[in-house]
Specification:
- There is one protein chain.
- The strands form three sheets. Strands 1-4-5-8 form a four-stranded mixed β-sheet. The protein has a four-stranded antiparallel β-sheet with strand order 2-3-7-6, with helices on one face. The protein has a two-stranded antiparallel sheet with strand order 9-10.
- The longest helix has 30 residues.
- By secondary structure, the protein is α+β, with helices and mostly antiparallel strands.
- It is built from 23 helices and ten strands.
- Helix 21 packs antiparallel against helix 22.
- Among the domains are: about 200 residues, no CATH class; about 120 residues, Butyryl-Coa Dehydrogenase, subunit A, domain 1 (Orthogonal Bundle), CATH 1.10.540; about 110 residues, Butyryl-CoA Dehydrogenase, subunit A, domain 2 (Beta Barrel), CATH 2.40.110.
- The radius of gyration is 25 Å and the shape is globular.
- This is Acyl-CoA dehydrogenase.
- Keywords: FAD, Flavoprotein, Oxidoreductase.
- GO terms for molecular function: acyl-CoA dehydrogenase activity; flavin adenine dinucleotide binding.
- One of its GO terms (cellular component) is cytoplasm.
- InterPro entries: Acyl-CoA_dehydrogenase, Acyl-CoA_Oxase/DH_mid-dom, Acyl-CoA_Oxase/DH_mid-dom_sf, AcylCo_DH-like_C, AcylCo_DH/oxidase_C, AcylCoA_DH/ox_N, AcylCoA_DH/ox_N_sf, AcylCoA_DH/oxidase_NM_dom_sf.
């Protein structure tokens, strides 16, 4: 038996990219609306008519939502959770009795078997009562033990773990380390084979639910040896195993009730039967889990948007300035319009992506990532606008408002709670790169070796021939399309005409594809370093996806006689607002300060501008930037607690 590594792996930039590339699904076995959109092909047929759930799924989902709403209204005290920074044990016990731990687990394993659509509706409902409770349920089911075991586990693992997760056991997902975030190639936690077991060593950071978890999904590196292919591997680990210590319960600016900590593993014995999938498949399992798991985050943003709209409507009607209600002032009204239109669009994106996930006819890896990226950014903007609308009261805590006799509106808390969404489950910057990689996959498949400096001349010649055939067929199709035909998409031409918005989406998708191609032609192998350009390309695609979803949802509601006229108005308002953002992004593709910014950054890091820092006192405490995480036994008291 070999000893666990004492330091983190040293990897080059290219090696890090190769690890990430190996983890992604290399094939597209199903159609993808968003992938086609980035290629300049507006495949409306993939999302319209809007897919709908089966009647049985609706009945089961609505019945549970009714019970969950009653629980939220009577058993969850969001103000108490915020004040005490902890979810009461009796609330968690009540959720277990309700079956909320098993919303996504099949009935045969003791779960409720809800669809992704109704799972997200449930998360939105719970999250509106307390975001911390929503995060607990989401971390448990979206990325915790149930999802990877359901997708990749053996029958024995499903029988062993899913019933527990459905009713009694809380789970957590452990990937991040103190010095390893979105760069998993440097993962240091090790799982060394020892007979029929593995010995697990390492430290994991920001383990949401880790403080109270009964079961853990842990990603660790198995060293290559005889009979072991090695690589980053996924394990289900019992949280009460000897050698596991929760060394700290972390505290944050928002989501004050979440049970997030630092977990140390010291020679923790894990049976080989608890390994999920083969050795080396851990990152692929993690990424596949996140394809749909990321949809839980937009659910919380939709809930936030709905609440922002409610408070904005009520407050702006009650508050008067200069002789008229606040909402009647144009500067304020613009914010209210943005909140209303964006909430409609976010719900459209969420429901469309979720229903597509339920039907499993499409590959939604890009759609799920776009939903996470877009919702986290727009949700934050809506919360910020709400705080601005509330003025000084928006900056004041709900407890302080109540203490002086006013309605306890936690607007500032919402802003704090939503801020993390732009960071976890893939930061905005990482999501830009992840989506961009998938968006240009078709180009890399045919021309990747042309821009790879390490490719041989023979490989470049083959790539050149393939690229010539592909682009000879593809480029001419970007010149003209349905978006230039005034009569296109007639079924969306009502009292409010959304057909013109869809024609804009079609035209702009082709324009986006042309811009992407030009960028690849211009920068070739350096394209991956142009993160500003790639981010704007992705943001344009996100806006086009949201416009498409909003229009399709509006038509669905109209066909049902369910606020169709109003839905068309909201979709039209959103599309008009989105078009302004899109045109600005196109302008910034080629007119920006990216090169100058890089020059300034070099100067900052070299200390050229350190004089600019004079005249302040740094209130930061002492200590290293990154805590030491060398393997070994814990020297701290175990902060883990079990909720029964």
């Amino acid at each position: 038996m070999s000893a666990p590594p004492s330091s983190k792996p040293t990897v080059s930039e290219r090696e890090a990219r190769e690890v990430a590339e190996a983890a992604r699904d290399q094939e597209w076995r199903k159609p993808s609306f968003a992938k086609e959109l980035f290629l300049g092909r507006f495949r409306l047929d993939l999302v319209h008519p809007h897919p709908t759930p089966a009647a049985e799924d609706v009945g089961r989902g609505e019945e549970f939502l009714a019970r969950l709403r009653a629980f939220c209204e009577t058993r969850i005290d969001g103000a108490l959770i915020e004040r005490e920074a902890r979810i009461p044990d009796e609330v968690v016990a009540g959720l277990k009795e309700l079956g909320a731990l098993g919303m996504k687990i099949a009935p045969e394993y003791g779960g409720l078997g809800l669809t992704q659509v109704y799972y997200n509706k449930a998360l939105a409902l719970v999250g509106s009562a307390s975001p911390a409770v929503g995060v607990l349920l989401s971390a448990h089911q979206s990325i915790g033990v149930p999802q990877p075991v359901k997708l990749f586990g053996t029958d024995e693992q499903k029988r062993a773990f899913l019933p527990r997760c459905a009713r009694t056991d809380i789970s957590a997902f452990l990937l991040t380390e103190p010095d390893v975030g979105s760069d998993p190639a440097r993962l240091a936690a090790s799982a060394v084979p020892d007979g029929d077991d593995y010995l697990l060593d390492g430290v994991k950071l920001w383990t949401t639910n880790g403080v109270v978890a009964d079961l853990l999904v842990v990603m660790a590196r198995v060293p290559r040896s005889a009979g072991h292919r090695g690589g980053i591997t996924a394990f289900v680990v019992e949280a009460d195993s000897p050698g596991i210590t929760v060394e700290n319960r972390n505290a944050f600016m928002g989501l004050r009730g979440i049970e997030n900590g630092v977990t140390r593993f010291h020679r923790v014995r894990v049976p080989a039967a608890h390994r999920i999938g083969p050795e080396g498949a851990g990152l692929k399992i993690a990424l596949t889990t996140l394809n749909t798991g990321r949809l839980s985050l937009p659910a919380s943003c939709v809930a936030a948007g709905k609440w922002c709209l409610k408070i904005a409507r009520e407050w702006s009607a009650a508050r008067e300035q200069w002789g008229k209600p606040l909402a009647h002032h144009e500067a304020v009204g613009a914010k209210i319009s943005f909140i209303a239109a964006t909430t409609f669009a976010l719900e459209a994106v969420l429901d469309l992506s979720s229903q597509m996930a339920d039907e499993d006819r499409n590959d939604i890896r890009i759609e799920g990532a776009l939903a996470k990226l877009y919702a986290s950014e727009m949700g934050w903007r809506m919360a910020d606008d709400l705080v601005q609308l509330r003025g000084g009261r928006g900056f004041e805590t709900a407890a302080s408002l109540a203490a002086r006799g006013e309605r306890a509106v936690p607007a500032e808390q919402l802003l704090r709670d939503l801020r993390i969404n732009r960071i976890f489950e893939g930061s905005t910057e990482i999501m830009h790169l992840l989506i961009a990689r998938e968006a240009v996959d078709a180009h890399l498949a045919v021309a990747g070796n042309l821009i790879d400096p390490e490719a041989t001349l023979q490989d470049k010649a083959k790539a050149g021939a393939s690229a010539g055939v592909f682009y000879a067929r593809w480029l001419p199709k970007l010149v003209a399309g349905q978006g230039q035909l005034p009569g296109a998409y007639p079924e969306f031409r009502r009292e409010v005409d959304l057909s013109k918005q869809l024609r804009y989406v079609e035209r702009t998708a082709r324009r986006l594809a042309r811009a992407t191609f030009y960028g690849m032609s211009r920068w070739q192998g350096r394209m991956e370093t142009k993160q500003g350009f790639l981010g704007r390309i992705v943001d344009i695609g996100a806006e086009l996806f949201a416009m498409s979803a909003a229009c399709v949802r509006a038509e669905l509601l109209r066909s049902r006689g369910d606020h169709g006229r109003e839905a068309y108005q909201l979709a039209d308002a959103f599309c008009r607002q989105a078009r302004i953002r899109i045109e600005e992004l196109f302008g910034r593709l080629w007119t920006n300060t990216d090169d100058l910014d890089r020059t300034v950054v070099k100067g900052v890091l070299a200390g050229t501008y350190s004089w600019l820092e004079d005249g302040i006192v740094d209130p930061s405490g002492e200590g290293p930037w990154i805590a030491a995480t060398d393997p070994g036994p814990s020297e701290k008291e175990n902060a883990h607690r079990t909720i029964r």
